[in-house]
Amino acid sequence: MGKSGRTHVDLEYLLGLRHHLAKVQLFSSPLQHSTLLGLHRSRLRGRGMDFDQVRAYQAGDDARSIDWRVTARTGEVHTKVFHEERERPVFIVVEQSLHVFFASTGNFKSVIAAQVASLFAWASLRHNDRVGGLVFTDADSTHIPTQRNKHSVLHFLQAIAAANQRLQHAMAQNTDNPLTDALLQARRLTRTGSLIILICNERHLTTQSSAMLRRLAEHAELLLLPLCDPLEHSLPHLGEAQFALGEKTLSINTDARNLREQWQQRGAAYQQAWQSIAQQLNAPLLPLSTTPCVLQQLQGFSLSKNSAAQVAADD
């Protein structure tokens, strides 16, 4: 299997993640319900009709659907019941900018994002869905159209790995929030009835990006996976500490009470903002941290009966 260190991940590793799908149930199946994505069978136009079951004939049933074999065997008229086959293009919007090239512990947010995007891509393909997405950085983005084949997943993972490998602290700084532009592109590139999986930095949620999410929710289902690091919610006692981002540095006294309180309040405000927008949009919210590992976090969401994902259960 390929490499996945704290800071970077390669294509071979992302390809190998398909072997770990059995460890977490991301999509519902006829025999197993997923608390993560039970929403996958809602409000969609079908692409055809699938056989569902055979039952006793009822007044009004189409005579053309009578199952003559079962009728002859039982002596009672039975009919075949069909349901609309559901298709939902899965469009994964994943961030690989300098904003997520960070972790105080565990893997970098950029690595977590790449891993999660890969797992959902493979799970979507296994679920027989069309899958594609948008990989966005500080400066640009790469669009992979949704298709129902391994080549589409391969191209998507190649785009993620390439963007991930380019990340380095010495890069020229661009501190602009790239999320709103990415959401604008997603609105233009996705069709009605799509499932849009958003994997991005927790601190990118602004009034502008929230408005864009509302626009997306008018024609698509959303799954929100904001990325955070424990340091962003609780400042450890380090005394005088220096933080660096590229050529910029900042020195702060981590023992200052007011600073610690403001730091914690700011982190809590972002958590609350994501919870609020998720509730407004009736969207599953799966916050991800740089620790523990991705599979453990997804398993925890899947097993939790109180997961926010349950708000989007099947119709």
Describe the 3D structure.
With 315 residues, the chain is of the alpha/beta class. The protein folds into two domains: 11-37 and 88-312, Rossmann fold (3-Layer(aba) Sandwich); 49-86, no CATH class. The protein contains eight helices and ten strands. The strands form three sheets. The protein has a six-stranded mixed β-sheet, with helices on both faces. Helix 5 packs parallel to helix 6.
In brief:
This protein is of the alpha/beta class. The chain is built from eight helices and ten strands. It has two domains: 11-37 and 88-312, 3-Layer(aba) Sandwich (Rossmann fold); 49-86, no CATH class.
Evaluate the radius of gyration: 23 Å
Query: At CATH's second level, what is the architecture of the largest domain?
Result: 3-Layer(aba) Sandwich
Fourth-tier CATH superfamily name of the largest domain: von Willebrand factor, type A domain
CATH class of the largest domain: Alpha Beta
Nearest-integer average pLDDT: 84
Number of strands: 10
Q: Uncertain segments of ≥5 residues (pLDDT<50)? A: 39-48, 305-315
H/E element string? HEHEEHEEHHEHEEEHEH
